Amino acid sequence: MKTFKLLVFGALLLPASVAGLRVASAHSFPEQETPSAGERLSAPPSEVTIKFDAPIEKLFAKLEVLDPDGKPETTGPPQVDPTALTLSVKVAALKPGDYTVKWGVVCIDSHHTEGSYVFTVAGGG
Ligand SMILES: [Cu+2]
After folding, report:
1. Distance 19 CA to ligand 1 centre (A)
2. Distance 95 CA to ligand 1 centre (A)
3. What confidence tens digit (pLDDT) does each residue in 67-110 have?
4. Which of 80, 89, 90, 108 has fewest C-beta within 10 Å?
């Protein structure tokens, strides 16, 4: 009889944890990147912007732009717009080369997502 009760308890717990996982999948992922991943620009951008598909927490938002040597090229802290969907950062005058954008955000239900991508500033001539 004791064993039967334990089995019933276990069967009740399982669907609850599966439902929990479904809720947890509502994370913030990039919807639009400017410059976009793999883009080759003829003129250097003045800022890098990522629009997310779900609101992000301002306090934990990170956005870095690294030059080919891994040196940061941002000229200020990342900004989150009032809709909490867009993260942007100003960058220095970028020389031709490949630049890595690294982002990390926490969505409003506290889940962390992060990623990186590369864009290229084309050389003159
Ligand atoms: Cu989430």
Report:
1. 14
2. 37
3. 999 999 999 999 999 999 999 999 999 999 999 999 999 998 89
4. 108
* AA identity, residue 21: L
Residue 72 carries which side chain, given as an amino acid letter? Answer: P
Query: By three-state DSSP, how is residue 75 classified?
Result: coil
Distance 66 CA to ligand 1 centre (A): 27
Q: How far is ligand 1, taken at its centre, from the CA of residue 39, in Å?
A: 28
Helices (H), 1-125: 2-24
| Structure tokens given for 11 | 């069967």
Q: Indicate the pTM of the whole model.
A: 0.78
| pLDDT 10s digits, 9-63 | 444 444 444 444 444 457 899 999 999 999 999 999 999 999 999 999 999 999 9
Determine whether domain 27-121 maps to CATH 3.40.47.40. no
Ligand 1 centroid to 24 CA: how many Å? 5
What residues pair up with 124 in beta bridges, in sequence order? Answer: none
